Amino acid sequence: MESIPDHIKENLRVLFIGFNPSIRSGETGHHYANPTNRFWTILQLSGLTERKYSSEEDYKLLDLGYGLTNIVAKPTKNAAELTKAEYEAGRKALIQKISRYKPKIACFVGKGVYEQFSRQKNIPWGKQQRSVVPGTIDFVAPSSSGLVRMKIVEIAAIYRELKELLSQLEK
Predict the structure, then answer these.
(1) Span of the secretion signal (predicted)?
(2) Residue spans per domain, the chain
(3) Which residues contact 21 (CB under 8 A, 6 or more apart)?
């Protein structure tokens, strides 16, 4: 199965970084395409987007200054199928992407993604004290997977903190 294309360009406001594409995303070629994934709803509820986008419109986020990528490009049923070597290769590639494209904020969609990237444990939600790539703020938000037990309103509240941080940076 093919990996899905990144939607990325220089100087993004936010680069959203997931674990890896779902099987459904791999089949459709679009980010967050699994019907149980709440990413598009969370963006709208948090105020990061004015309306609910569909996965087929994932490329349109670039017009808002938002990009999409994953730490590992290979589609799987779940992140548990990924190997340590795949994460390490993905970590190195992600550091290169962030260094090259210089987003204001790298938003990690799930603590596990950030643990793999930062090599840290016990990570709080929100803005991190130190960034892995200087010049880009690391922000950790809950995964949008339907498997996550947090209520969607709680998840959206953390993404609202991302929106507020972005507003502060753009003043």
Answers:
(1) none
(2) 14-169
(3) 3, 4, 31, 70, 73, 74, 75, 76
Residue-level pLDDT at 1: 66
Q: pTM of the prediction?
A: 0.96
* Residue recorded with tokens 């929100």: 126
- Looking at residue 31, the DSSP 8-state letter turns out to be T
CA–CA gap between residue 99 and residue 106 (Å, rounded): 11
**What are the tokens at 56?**
């087929």
The three-point CA angle 136-19-69 to 5° equals 55
DSSP state of 32: T
Q: What is the pLDDT of residue 79?
A: 83
Q: Of the CATH numbers 3.30.460.80, 1.10.630.10, 3.30.428.10, 3.40.470.10, which one belongs to the domain with range 14-169?
A: 3.40.470.10
Of 144, 145, 98, residue with least CA distance to 117: 98
Instruction: Give the confidence band of 38 by pLDDT, cuts at 50, 70, 90.
Output: very high
